[in-house]
Amino acid sequence: MTGPANSSLRLTTASARRDGIALFFCALVAFASYDAFCKWMLRDHSAPMMNLTRYVSVSVIALVWLVREGDLKLWRTPCKWLLLARGLALGIVASCFMAALVHMPLAEATAIYFTAPLIMVALSPAVLGERVGRAQWAAVLAGFGGMLLIVRPGGDLPLVGTVLMMVSAVCYAAFQLLTRRLAGVVAGPVLYAWTALICLVVTGVPALATLPEVMPPAPDILLMMAGGACSGLAQLLLLAAFRRVAASTLAPLNYFQLLLAVLISTFVFQRPPDGIALAGIVLIMLSGGYLALRGRQAPPAPPASLVKPVVARPKD
User: Fold this and answer.
1) Do the beta carbons of residue 38 and residue 98 sit within 8 Å?
2) Are 232 and 57 in contact (CB under 8 A)?
3) What range defines the domain where residue 260 resides?
4) Burial (Cβ within 10 Å: 0-12, 13-18, ≥19) of residue 130
5) Of residues 28, 30, 105, 100, the one with CA closest to residue 268
6) pLDDT in tens, 118-159
7) 152 with 100: CB under 8 angstroms?
8) How far is it, in rounded angstroms, from Cα 169 to Cα 143?
9) Residue 194 placed within a domain
10) Is residue 191 in a domain?
């Protein structure tokens, strides 16, 4: 017979799950909205300036979080080289993604970017020592086949934007792998702050090199910083979601952002993907969704005492 305590626990767990999924969807909507906002603003402003204002806002959020937690001694954290590699990887992601958006339609750009989970699976045996089965390799190859449908020879996607977005996807896969290495080792506020400050430097140098010739008017700077704050708060929504729901549950939902990108590209920017590109986008979504669901069904890891430690090599 189930007692009141067990019933209350089930209700609490179900409520946390609903809240976590809702927060996750809010984060995805915020990310998709920010990407669309950037695409719109890039008509009049440079990609480096968009990135600089974004990471000024994100750094302010990081500082507030650190002050609230009472830990400003970032230099005392462990794994500094891994933190540096992680921040550099995301800085390259931001720089390449924003520059690619100048040339690429939003839907196709986002689809190429969403091959990052496939790349992460392909790299995980070498970086994390994880085993990848035949079915997973098949899903990875199918997803890459979808990308080839998008960037096929004879298509109208610009080469520069395509290459930049591919670099962005590879670096984001590296960023995710390094995040998994650092999870549970470095506190969340410290991880967030290191990444924000490194990205501020990486994206700030090219932006400052263009001043004062391309200095936007003050209202536009404030608007871009507000957009950057939206991006930074979306990261906090993700963290809040992961505190309530297992990552394996949320991972398959990530592709809702890709669906939003297709819709925004079609109805806001009047740039729908053609039939072949749309087939490639669907193939990437199905492959990534399968890998995420496969991760949910994976057997539990062996005890830590039985696992041979893997030394990560920061390559970014």
Assistant:
1) yes
2) yes
3) 23-297
4) middle
5) 105
6) 998 898 888 778 888 899 999 999 999 999 999 987 778 999
7) no
8) 13
9) yes
10) yes
> Could you tell me which residues come within 8 angstroms of residue 260 by beta carbon, excluding any fewer than 6 positions away?
28, 29, 32
Give the pair of three-digit tokens for residue 79.
């794994």
What amino acid occupies position 135? A
Has residue 58 been placed in a domain? yes
Give pLDDT tens digits for 200-233.
Answer: 999 988 888 877 666 889 999 999 999 999 999 9
Residue pLDDT, tens place only, 297-314 = 544 444 333 333 333 333
> Whose CA is closest to 177, among 237, 125, 251, 111?
125
Question: Comparing C-alpha atoms, which of 90, 151, 149, 78 is closest to residue 116?
Answer: 90
Buried b (16+ CB within 10 A) or exposed e, 200-236: bebbbebbeeeeeeeebeeeebebbbebbbbbbbbbb
Torsion angle, alpha carbons of 70, 73, 74, 79, to 10: -110
Torsion of CA 207, 210, 213, 214, to 10 degrees: -40
Out of 82-86, 89-93, 243-247, least confident range:
243-247
| Number of residues that this document lists for the chain | 316
Helix (H, G, I), strand (E, B) or coil at 97: helix
CA–CA gap between residue 122 and residue 250 (Å, rounded): 21
CB contact at 8 A, 50 and 42: yes
Instruction: Report how many domains make up the chain.
Output: 1
**10 inside domain:** no
Residues contacting residue 262 through CB under 8 Å, at least 6 positions apart:
107, 110, 111, 272, 273, 278, 281
